[in-house]
């Protein structure tokens, strides 16, 4: 392949721009803010899970307390009715004995229910403290997540702005290259290699390796418009600069 030496020289600039674009891409994908964001998101998820558990437990205890309150109210109503009946006239001694027995049973039942309710209320108080703590943890975690998200977006924005400038520079260089020369460059670059490098003395600017003397002799005697490739890495060797 042949190409004007001036066009070949532009490949060095293109390779430098591509290298910088590659560094920017790598930097964007390895931002420390990304790891911080992942940790912050995990913390938020954990805080939300803890809050849900506390809310669920609090809800269960509130229902238990309400159920016991209804049961106690029922016992109190039954006790009040029995006291009214016992204090009334016209009941037999047997009925009075039965009512008194029922009142004793109701008193014991009320005591059991009230003790159970007290225990649950104490547990509910502890869960309430846990609930407040879980809400505070979630609030802090969400605040931290927002801060890290803003930092990541700022860092990505800076990189993207620089990348946009490099993309424009690449477009300008590419537009000035012959199609066949550019195709050769892109073919090499597609293999994940540096596609062009300046020949400096006896070293390839792409792979930095010292080149064989015989090969160098062939390169130096080749026509200026001849496109030559490094025998070590296959990159286009740009001469005459």
UniProtKB/TrEMBL annotation:
This is C4-type zinc ribbon domain-containing protein. InterPro entries: CT398_CC_hairpin, Oxidative_Scav/Glycosyltrans, Zf-RING_7. Residues 14-191 form the CT398-like coiled coil hairpin domain. It comes from the Bacteria. Keywords: Coiled coil. Residues 203-237 form the C4-type zinc ribbon domain. Residues 37-158 form a coiled coil.
